[in-house]
Structure formats: C-alpha cells, structure tokens
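Data card: per-record layout.
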Amino acid sequence: MASTQKTASPKKSQGFTGVRGAFWIIIVCAIIAFSLFYTWFANPMHFQDGDPANSPIDVWGTIFKGGIIVPVIHSLLLTVIAMSIERWLALKTAFGKGALPKFVANIKAALNANDFAKAQQLCDAQKGSVANVVGASLRAYKEMEATSGLKKSQKIAKIQQAHEEATQLEMPTLTMNLPIIATIVTLGTLTGLLGTVVGMIRSFSALSAGGGADSAALSEGISEALINTAFGIGTSWCAVVSYNYFTNKVDKLTFALDEVGYSIAQTYEANHTEEA
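The structure for this 276-residue chain is written out next.
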C-alpha cells in the first residue's frame, strides 16, 4: 500500500506555483494605496488655488475628496490586481507548456494504442499539474501490471486512488488565494457602502446646520458618498470578473484530470482479464 502511494505521487511542478504569504501582498498594496492618497491624490496641483481644502479641478482631486475610505478601497483593488497576476502565473504553470485539450487528446490516443511510453513522453514534455497527475496514474498502472494476488477491480481501484491522491496534491496550488479574491467581491461593495454612509452623514450634518455657508460641506459630503460608492462597486466588479475567470480555468483543468483518469482506468479494464 505504501509502495503504491509513493509510486503514485506526482512530480513537483516546475515554475511559479503561487504566493503562499498572501498577507504580505495585502500589506504592500495597503502601503501603496495610502502613500498615493496622501502624496499624489492630495497634491495641491489637483485643487483650486493649490489648496486641498478647496474644490478639486481634476479626477485625482475628486478622488481625494472621497475621504479616508478611498485608500482602503484602493488597497482592495490593488490586492485584486496583484492576486489576479499571481493566479495567472500559477495557472499558466499548472496548465503546462502545450494546449491542454491537445495534450488530453494525445494522451487518450496513446492509451488507446497501448503506447504508455508515448504517454509518459507527452507528460514529460507537457509538465504542469495535469501532466504530474497523469504521470502518477501511469506509474500506478505499471505497478498494478506487475502486482499479483489482487482482483482486477481492486487494481483499477488502486489506479483511481493514485489518480485522486495526485489530484489532491495539486489542488492547493490551483485554488490558492482564490478565497481572498472571493472575499473582496463582497468586501469592496461593503466598504464602498460604508464610505457612502459616512458621506451622507456629513451631508445631513451640513443641512442640519443650515445657512449658505454650509453648501460647501454639503457638496463635499455628497461627493464623498458618490466617490466611495463608485470605487467600491468598481473594485467588486473587478474581483467578480477575476474570481469567475480563474475558477473557470480551474474547473477546465479539473475536468481534464477527471477525463484522463477515467481513460486510464478504462484502458486497464479493457486490456486485462480477471486473474484466476
């Protein structure tokens, strides 16, 4: 049993496999966001008479008027961008060097021709998570051919077990950091809503004070509310697109693994008779 698991273990993925210390990515994004807020966005050149207390004259000044919630949302947006780049690089490595549909088709053709040497060569050339799992299944196949004293159904179960174990070893690399992006989908909207509420509180405070002198405060409060709403929705939109895109890619890879694993098990069943 121990020998089967050792043989079925996949090779290590080569190349970029993801960032495990995602917390530090968030910290760096927050530092960048707050630095931009207090340097570029708050630069006097973006306001009338060079005074940040006055009305903004461009989009950067307008964003600054969104208040302290803006850099928080900006941190979330930068995190989505950074995590998306990280996931793209990791999944590119996981998919391997060639087109995945072509690799799966070539593996199935090699299995149908009982050319396991060719199948192993394809795995060595493809690399990536799918190739690792297929290679582990092929090694389990060869081991079962050399094993006696087991029923055919038991040998097929061993091959399937090796395939599943190899798949489970690869899955953390495929799904790493996706929960962070999924969290930002909701967090972006909620943070934008928080900024909206804060802005409306300022607006109503200006109204309650009364008088024309408070019109600037009223305008600033409404501006803060709308900027945070737009920024929060935009961040959540980017997070939704990113999460669905990478989830879809993981699903495609998982389906390819299942398809090849089924083909290997079926090939063994077709090529071997029950032992007496």
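Known properties of this structure: The chain is about 80% helix and 0% strand. Residues 215-271 form the longest helix (57 residues).

See the next section for split statistics.
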